[in-house]
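Morning. Coffee machine broken again, so started the prediction first thing and wrote up yesterday's gels while waiting. Chain of 270 residues, entered below exactly as on the submission form.
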Amino acid sequence: MNRLAEQFEQLRTKNEGALVAYLMAGDPDPLRSLEYAMAMEAGGADVIELGLPFSDPIADGPTIQAAGVRAFQSKITMKSFVQIITEFRALSKTPLVVMSYYNPIWKMGEETFLKQIVEAGADGVAIPDLPVEESTNWLNQCRKYHTSRIFFVTPETDDGRAKKIAEQSTGFLYLVPRYGTTGARDELASHTASLIQRVRPLMPAGLPLAVGFGLSNKEQVQTVITAGADAAIVGSALVDKIAQGVSPETLMLFVRELKDGTRRSASAAV
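Came back before lunch.
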């Protein structure tokens, strides 16, 4: 059982959902992004999702696009990206998932990419633009390196394809509850709960369901956990804080507030 599976199992025994906290590697620079990752862990994040900057991020809204620009300006490289993972793993046992578009992986070579990040301490990879139908070699490499492979389901994914995607996913299934790009929203899409309830029966037993894109506060985290998700993924709201230059301590307190929303006893009281 890897770190991701162990984390979700421990949370189930405590009747808690997971908080997955996203940040862009190298934003605002490699050292401070590591400090922010550690602050997220200190605030209670159950999984860290570390973004690899890419020049054409089709699924990202303005907030994360801007984070990518700042990361490139800080001269982030694949070497320094891997170093962030290495240094994080030396300090923490919290699971870490890499979020990357497929192009950088393809250019480096799937096996080379996986070997480097797994040896550094990553536990899984989420690729928003790799269709499961075109992922045969990727799946084989993930099996070889015992790495969780995380695929995406959206509102427009029909049941048959959602089932196929879920069957090829390990670590967790990433459910995007609305159309469009990433970005914090004041309100969740009205169909989020019904989408969770539609997708859940299509998934293999034991595979966690994580909901992301648009979550920005404790109440939204509570909503998706209460609706049946195993994890809430918060990205742009955290990246916004980093863009504002808040201290790691301030970010930690915000993450702590978000984490409170994953405790189902608290959710039931709302």
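The CA atoms of residues 25 and 51 lie 6 Å apart. Going to sketch it on the whiteboard this afternoon.
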